[in-house]
């Protein structure tokens, strides 16, 4: 049942021009960033060559590209997730779905996996760029893998938060704006790091970007992965609970 | 089910409680994940991690190590330091790192003698070391020095107008002495006429430019100290040997008459012609790590008359464009080829080593050889010149080497595997054109088709 819901969600997405244009725009932006990073590398490569501990293509081209991808998708992910539940509830199809013999958990997981499928397609498209460089150099595959893992976890976290926000309101735009606000807040929360040692430690931990940065560096830390998994779990459980509460008569 | 107000309120309460419990559980799991974590470095050659040598060094340390970084709040330097120190913290979690903004704590900067932004102070068991370079090699070696040094006494000879390690006059060594004490060394003045012997716990004896001749008895004591295997740093300014001709003879060193004149210093805007610049170094442990040049005002040249059982290495040499000037330093001066003046490069300092007979004075088991450094200049460590470029570092390295604290970790640089990118023409075209134009255009086109088809329906 989960699979059916997920497949339907993914199909609906690709039936709308929104998903296609998002893919196109993201690809255009990232390709531009990618090519300008390559240009930068080509300019500095001769100077770097003789230096000890010199950075390579992965460090100069791919890591910044993946880092920028995170920021761009922070802006765009809410647009993809906004309709997931809010539009269903506006067009009263959610009630139908709810009255069918499917558990809330299955509905939420199906929706989530459908959206995640879209982001994995996006991720595959983005990874084509770094992988294309293998034609001309021997990439630091470990670092690339860890960066892609980080991006995948980050996207999965965006999706979970967006899905939850979409369950709160009937208006897709409200869902988009509020999930963007939530994600941005979690992105920059560690900037307020000067207020007391304990609090700033907590804020640093909560920040979405801190954990991504260390994965981007090629440093795999189980606590970073656990952070994203807990983040996803929390928002999915909250979404299930939110829908359960809706099923209850008011 | 009969839904009453009561049950509704209960249900809502249940939901709140559930949310609260969920968040508490997630928080607990998150905390646990930071306590028990697996960290691995996926990069090629583990470029984010410490080398095995550094890890072994950290494993040797008992108790906490404090690293104080003098870095401003903003800027790339802070991230650089945090990243470097982070590698050490991952191996040894009880390293305490403190960031100090030098603008906000000027009194600490003055007290610790911090000379530049980005300087790191490493403290361990009451001793400290300074690092200015942000590389694993520099930091590991500083940790090594701070960890291995035991109690070391540095004796400065007094009584003949020598430079005073606690004095504040321009020609004194007060700043250098203070820096040695900050490192955890014991700096002590020594008057041989009073003590009548060189204390046997001395790691290094320093004779810094005596203005008056030592008494024959004192010279004998110094010689006996040398014969017994003591380490000596002898700073001798031009025209003065302090009556230690017999010591010089014993070491097989001869001072050339005159003052070294360096013609290249005028390029650097130095007015007086008798300041010698040393820009290239020998791979000797003392000079190996020096990155900047050193500056020696009013120095004399040394010549080797090696005879005895000493191994001698030149430590510092002046540049090509130098000579020993015998005349006065006034008016136009130049090298007189016909006279006794000697053309550069000239040796400014020599390092003497000698292996001692096992069992004689090397009783403590750690001293295996005897070390002596003779330098034809004392001004470079004086209060007025210590702050110039790498002079202080040279002085500290000298003391470290003389007191047999010169173990060194060489860390092999680990480079990225992908330092060159060679794409063929087709590959370039596909990457440049394909990603930037073709792929986005196809995607937008697909969107357009979907939209048109849906509109028709």
TrEMBL record, chain A:
<feature type="transmembrane region" description="Helical">
    <location>
        <begin position="225"/>
        <end position="243"/>
    </location>
</feature>
<dbReference type="GO" id="GO:0005886">
    <property type="term" value="C:plasma membrane"/>
</dbReference>
<feature type="transmembrane region" description="Helical">
    <location>
        <begin position="172"/>
        <end position="189"/>
    </location>
</feature>
<dbReference type="GO" id="GO:0140359">
    <property type="term" value="F:ABC-type transporter activity"/>
</dbReference>
<keyword id="KW-0472">Membrane</keyword>
<feature type="transmembrane region" description="Helical">
    <location>
        <begin position="12"/>
        <end position="35"/>
    </location>
</feature>
<feature type="transmembrane region" description="Helical">
    <location>
        <begin position="65"/>
        <end position="86"/>
    </location>
</feature>
<dbReference type="Pfam" id="PF12679">
    <property type="entry name" value="ABC2_membrane_2"/>
</dbReference>
<protein>
    <submittedName>
        <fullName>ABC-type transporter, permease component</fullName>
    </submittedName>
</protein>
<keyword id="KW-0812">Transmembrane</keyword>
<keyword id="KW-1133">Transmembrane helix</keyword>
<feature type="transmembrane region" description="Helical">
    <location>
        <begin position="144"/>
        <end position="165"/>
    </location>
</feature>
<feature type="transmembrane region" description="Helical">
    <location>
        <begin position="107"/>
        <end position="132"/>
    </location>
</feature>
From TrEMBL, chain B:
<dbReference type="InterPro" id="IPR019196">
    <property type="entry name" value="ABC_transp_unknown"/>
</dbReference>
<feature type="transmembrane region" description="Helical">
    <location>
        <begin position="16"/>
        <end position="33"/>
    </location>
</feature>
<feature type="domain" description="ABC-type uncharacterised transport system">
    <location>
        <begin position="154"/>
        <end position="387"/>
    </location>
</feature>
<dbReference type="InterPro" id="IPR029062">
    <property type="entry name" value="Class_I_gatase-like"/>
</dbReference>
<dbReference type="InterPro" id="IPR055396">
    <property type="entry name" value="DUF7088"/>
</dbReference>
<feature type="domain" description="DUF7088">
    <location>
        <begin position="47"/>
        <end position="111"/>
    </location>
</feature>
<feature type="transmembrane region" description="Helical">
    <location>
        <begin position="429"/>
        <end position="452"/>
    </location>
</feature>
<dbReference type="Pfam" id="PF09822">
    <property type="entry name" value="ABC_transp_aux"/>
</dbReference>
<keyword id="KW-0472">Membrane</keyword>
<keyword id="KW-0812">Transmembrane</keyword>
<keyword id="KW-1133">Transmembrane helix</keyword>
<protein>
    <submittedName>
        <fullName>ABC-type uncharacterized transporte, auxiliary component</fullName>
    </submittedName>
</protein>
<dbReference type="Pfam" id="PF23357">
    <property type="entry name" value="DUF7088"/>
</dbReference>
């Amino acid at each position: 049942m989960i699979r059916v819901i997920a497949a339907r969600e993914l199909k609906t997405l690709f039936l709308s021009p929104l998903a296609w244009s998002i893919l196109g725009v993201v690809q255009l932006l990232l390709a531009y960033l990618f090519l300008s990073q390559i240009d930068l590398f080509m300019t500095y490569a001769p100077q770097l060559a003789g230096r000890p501990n010199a950075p390579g293509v992965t460090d100069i081209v791919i890591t910044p590209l993946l880092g920028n991808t995170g920021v761009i998708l922070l802006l765009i992910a809410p647009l993809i997730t906004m309709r997931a539940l809010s539009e269903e509830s506006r067009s009263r199809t959610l009630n139908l779905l709810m009255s069918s013999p499917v558990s809330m958990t299955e509905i939420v997981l199906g929706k989530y996996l459908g959206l995640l499928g879209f982001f994995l397609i996006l991720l595959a498209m983005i990874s084509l760029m770094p992988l294309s460089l293998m034609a001309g150099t021997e990439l630091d595959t470990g670092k690339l893998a860890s960066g892609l893992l980080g991006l995948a976890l980050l996207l999965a976290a965006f999706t979970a938060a967006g899905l939850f926000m979409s369950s709160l309101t009937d208006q897709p735009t409200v869902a988009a704006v509020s999930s963007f606000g939530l994600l941005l807040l979690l992105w920059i929360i560690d900037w307020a790091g000067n207020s007391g040692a304990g609090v700033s430690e907590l804020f640093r931990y909560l920040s979405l970007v801190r954990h991504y940065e260390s994965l981007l560096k090629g440093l795999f830390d189980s606590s970073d992965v656990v952070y994203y998994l807990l983040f996803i779990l929390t928002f999915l459980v909250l979404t299930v609970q939110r829908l359960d509460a809706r099923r209850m008569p008011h | 089910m009969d839904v009453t107000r009561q049950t509704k309120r209960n249900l809502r309460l249940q939901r709140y409680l559930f949310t609260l419990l969920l968040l508490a559980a997630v928080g607990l799991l998150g905390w646990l994940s930071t306590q028990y974590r697996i960290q691995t470095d996926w990069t090629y050659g583990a470029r984010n991690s410490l080398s095995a040598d550094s890890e072994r060094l950290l494993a040797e340390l008992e108790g906490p190590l404090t690293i104080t970084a003098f870095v401003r709040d903003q800027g790339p330097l802070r991230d650089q330091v945090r990243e470097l120190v982070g590698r050490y913290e991952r191996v040894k979690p009880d390293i305490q790192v403190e960031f100090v903004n030098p603008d906000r704590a000027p009194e600490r900067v003055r007290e610790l003698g911090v000379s530049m932004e980005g300087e790191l102070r490493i403290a361990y068991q009451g001793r400290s070391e300074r690092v200015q370079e942000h590389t694993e090699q520099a930091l590991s070696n500083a940790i090594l020095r701070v960890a291995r040094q035991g109690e070391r006494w540095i004796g400065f000879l007094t009584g003949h107008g020598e430079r005073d390690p606690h004095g504040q006059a321009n020609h004194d060594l007060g700043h250098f002495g203070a820096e040695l004490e900050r490192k955890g060394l014991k700096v002590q003045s020594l008057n041989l006429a009073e003590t009548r012997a060189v204390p046997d716990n001395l790691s290094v004896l320093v004779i810094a430019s005596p203005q008056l001749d030592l008494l024959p008895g004192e010279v004998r004591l110094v010689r006996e100290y040398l014969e017994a295997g003591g380490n000596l740093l002898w700073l001798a300014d031009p025209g003065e040997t302090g009556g230690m001709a017999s010591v010089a003879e014993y070491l097989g060193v001869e001072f050339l008459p005159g003052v070294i004149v360096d013609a290249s210093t005028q390029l650097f805007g130095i007015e007086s012609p008798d300041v010698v610049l040393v820009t290239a170094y020998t791979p000797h442990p003392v000079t190996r790590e020096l990155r900047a040049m050193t500056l020696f005002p009013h120095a004399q040249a040394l010549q080797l008359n090696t005879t005895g059982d000493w191994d001698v290495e030149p430590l510092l040499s002046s540049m090509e464009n130098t000579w020993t000037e015998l005349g006065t330093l006034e008016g136009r001066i130049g090298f007189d080829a016909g006279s006794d003046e000697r053309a550069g490069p000239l040796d400014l300092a020599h390092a003497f080593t000698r292996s001692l007979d096992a069992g004689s004075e090397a009783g403590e088991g750690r001293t295996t050889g005897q070390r002596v450094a003779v330098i034809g200049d004392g001004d470079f460590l004086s209060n007025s010149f210590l702050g110039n470029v790498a002079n202080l570092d040279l002085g500290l390295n000298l003391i470290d080497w003389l007191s047999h604290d010169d173990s060194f970790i060489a860390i092999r640089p680990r480079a990225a595997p992908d330092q060159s990118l060679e794409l063929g023409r087709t590959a370039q075209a596909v990457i440049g054109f394909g990603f930037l134009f073709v792929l986005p255009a196809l995607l937008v086109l697909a969107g357009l088709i979907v939209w048109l088809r849906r509109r028709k329906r």
